[in-house]
Design brief:
Layout (H helix, E strand, L loop, with lengths): L4 E2 L20 E3 L2 E9 L5 H15 L8 E5 L4 E9 L9 E11 L2 E12 L10 E2 L9 H27 L8 H5 L9 H8 L4 E5 L2 E7 L2 E6 L2 E6 L1
Parallel strand pairs: 1-5
Antiparallel strand pairs: 2-3, 3-7, 4-5, 5-6, 6-7, 7-8, 9-10, 10-11, 11-12
């Protein structure tokens, strides 16, 4: 899996990594450290929320296709993905954190559950090997408490960026759900529907008003005026 690092210190995400905006606490579930929360989105349909959440992960977390997405249940409006988040730019640790994120949308609420968190140490970290967050002992080592605080800030900024997009993006109406759910490349798919079905293209090119998305040496989508006009598979 070649999951892309979710950089959180950039203006792109519209939120400073050090902003004190209701930090997501690190808590425990059956002896494991987790981070969880929800966002109320009563102003839009669950379908719109799901589409926005999925598109954000495809565009910002996946490197190609759906390489960061572990599982998807289109019917239940839920999916799970692996995310890499870097320490804030002003952090002394310069760590990368890997984690599993589960998303479930129901009754105008988006619930997220983050677990299997792992520290990939930076050059200034105490540890030089990957460490499961569950094994940190802040009650014994102050440095471990620093790592947990850095993790909380990093994930909070990343999730606020994610929620901001989910709340504000206006996707087109999905009219080809059966094709999306079965990953069936049919004419008429929009670019958003193609991302839902197949993820991020490996290569994009344009020639004389026609756009080509390559998903491999034997799979190409061709778009005219924003919809699939031809398929090579």
């Amino acid at each position: 899996m070649k999951t892309k690092l979710f950089l959180i210190g950039l203006v792109l995400f519209g939120l400073s990594a050090t902003a004190q905006v209701n930090p997501i606490p690190i808590t425990e579930d059956n002896g494991a450290r987790i981070m969880t929360g929800f966002e109320s989105l009563a102003f839009q349909s669950d379908e719109t929320t799901f589409v926005n959440a999925y598109l954000f992960v495809v565009d910002n977390v996946c490197s190609v296709k759906k390489d960061a997405i572990v599982s998807t249940d289109f019917e239940a409006h839920s999916f799970k993905f692996t995310m890499l988040v870097g320490s804030p730019e002003d952090s002394k640790l310069n760590n990368v954190y890997q984690m599993d994120v589960s998303i479930r949308i129901q009754d105008h609420r988006m619930v997220y559950y983050i677990n299997n968190m792992q520290v990939i140490p930076g050059k200034n970290s105490l540890s030089k090997t990957n460490t499961l967050v569950d094994k940190l002992t802040p009650e014994k080592r102050a440095a471990h408490g620093d790592i947990l605080a850095d993790l909380s800030v990093s994930v909070t900024a990343a999730m606020h960026s994610f929620i901001d997009f989910v709340s504000n993006n206006k996707p087109g109406k999905v009219t080809h759900w059966e094709a999306v759910k079965t990953a069936n490349a049919v004419k008429g798919l929009t670019m958003e529907e193609a991302k839902l079905a197949f993820g991020k293209p490996q290569y994009v090119s344009e020639n004389r008003g026609e756009v080509q998305w390559m998903y491999g040496s034997s799979f190409y989508l061709f778009f005219k005026n924003g919809t699939v006009s031809s398929v090579i598979r």
